[in-house]
């Protein structure tokens, strides 16, 4: 019972923060502290959302963004985990790649956009590469750190049972490093979503960011703010959804 009450209290506090923000937004527009050209009223944003749903534009842009996010994230995160494990288990791979890995990791994904546009254009492939790059490095770093930190006795047991490299990866490395790797994958998903929206804002043929940029160009601040709300809501849902999956996987992982 106490646990349920704490959960309800946490939910109430979360929603009270959102309600406070909406109230402050509404009061600012009613009192005229900001002109409508800068801060559109909530009712105009809601009307823009309804219009976008009815016209189908909102659904098309959402599908375009989320499909690219899914493809780029799966590719980037999978390659990142594989590379991180390989770098942690092989001194040769680490010696040859660690310098370049850590150098490129420091460069923001957005800095590669002009070059990627020239290489791939502005369609889906370009955005998938952007999302893949943003997903790769947090996943790789998490996997590398997790595997490198595993106790030596785990591998001594694997040596006793003469496990093959594949069996060692499946039965020792991945289960033992699962919690920190999942945390890295969760961070990768957030980074990927932010990078995708940034790419669409700068140059894209469709997507939530492109919808916001078109709204800016046509002085539709209600559309821009609608995009801001959607980006925050989708990012929140993605993070919470991954957190639940993470809890299930960690709870079901072998000790």
Can you walk me through this structure?
The protein has helices at residues 2-31, 42-55, 57-89, 91-105, 113-120, 124-148, 152-160, 165-202, 208-217, 221-252. It contains ten helices and no strands. Helix 3 (57-89) runs antiparallel to helix 4 (91-105), helix 6 packs across helix 8 (165-202) and helix 9 (208-217) packs antiparallel against helix 10 (221-252). The protein has one domain (56-249): MetI-like (MetI-like fold, Orthogonal Bundle), CATH 1.10.3720.10. It has 255 residues and is an all-alpha fold. The protein is 84% helix and 0% strand.
Secondary-structure map:
Blueprint: H1 2-31, H2 42-55, H3 57-89, H4 91-105, H5 113-120, H6 124-148, H7 152-160, H8 165-202, H9 208-217, H10 221-252
Helix pairs in contact: 2-10, 3-4, 3-6, 3-8, 3-9, 5-6, 6-8, 8-9, 8-10, 9-10
Distance between the termini: 29 Å
Largest sheet composition:
none
In sequence order, what are the helices and strands, one letter per element?
A: HHHHHHHHHH
Number of helices, where a helix is a run of at least 4 consecutive DSSP H or I residues? 10
Quaternary structure state of the chains depicted:
single chain
Task: Tell me the structural class.
Answer: mainly alpha
């Amino acid at each position: 019972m106490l646990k349920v009450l704490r959960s309800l209290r946490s939910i109430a506090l979360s929603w009270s923060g959102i309600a406070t923000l909406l109230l402050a937004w509404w009061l600012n527009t009613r009192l005229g502290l900001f002109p409508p050209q800068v801060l559109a009223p909530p009712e105009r944003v809601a009307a823009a959302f309804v219009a976008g749903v009815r016209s189908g534009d909102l659904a098309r842009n959402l599908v375009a963004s989320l499909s690219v996010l899914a493809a780029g994230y799966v590719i980037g995160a999978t390659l990142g985990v594989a590379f991180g494990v390989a770098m942690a288990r092989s001194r040769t791979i680490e010696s040859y790649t660690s310098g370049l890995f850590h150098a490129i990791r420091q460069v923001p994904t957005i800095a590669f956009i002009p070059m990627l546009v020239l290489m791939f254009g502005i369609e889906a492939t370009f955005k998938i590469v952007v999302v893949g790059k943003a997903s790769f490095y947090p996943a790789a770093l998490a996997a590398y750190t997790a595997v490198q930190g595993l106790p030596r006795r785990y591998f001594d047991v694997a040596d006793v049972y003469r496990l093959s490299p594949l069996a060692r990866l499946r039965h020792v490395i991945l289960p033992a490093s699962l919690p920190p790797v999942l945390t890295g994958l969760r961070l990768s998903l957030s980074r990927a979503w932010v990078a995708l929206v940034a790419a669409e804002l700068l140059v894209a043929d469709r997507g939530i960011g492109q919808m916001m940029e078109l709204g800016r160009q046509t002085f539709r601040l209600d559309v821009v703010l609608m995009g801001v709300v959607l980006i925050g809501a989708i990012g929140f849902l993605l993070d919470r959804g991954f957190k639940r999956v993470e809890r299930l996987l960690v709870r079901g992982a072998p000790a």
